[in-house]
Every structure is written in C-alpha cells, then in structure tokens.
Write a structure and sequence with these properties.
The chain is mainly α. The chain has helices spanning about 20-30, 45-50. The chain is extended.
C-alpha cells in the first residue's frame, strides 16, 4: 500500500481491472451509492477514445 500520506495531500487513485464485463457494469451502475463518501468511481479510457 505504501506510506500513509499527510491529510493535505491529494488522494491516490487505484485502477481496477475486471475479468468479466458484468462485474464492471455492476460497479458502474452502483457507483451512485458512494455519493457523500470520500470514495468516487470514474472510468478511464485510452487517450485515443477520450478525445
């Protein structure tokens, strides 16, 4: 996990890779349940697609 960062530093992102498309969709669909917490979920796309 690494060293614990100070409270003023930016949070560290993690990257999750799913073995099955349905697992990914389950996480994406339920991401709204994290509203109001310190955890957020966003998708990451290759640069060619993000443009």
């Amino acid at each position: 996990m690494g060293r614990k960062l100070s409270a003023s530093s930016k949070p560290r992102p993690i990257v999750a890779k799913f073995n099955r498309y349905q697992q990914r969709e389950d996480v994406r669909v339920n991401a709204h349940k994290l509203k109001g917490t310190k955890i957020g979920i966003s998708e990451q796309f290759p640069e060619e697609i993000a443009k």
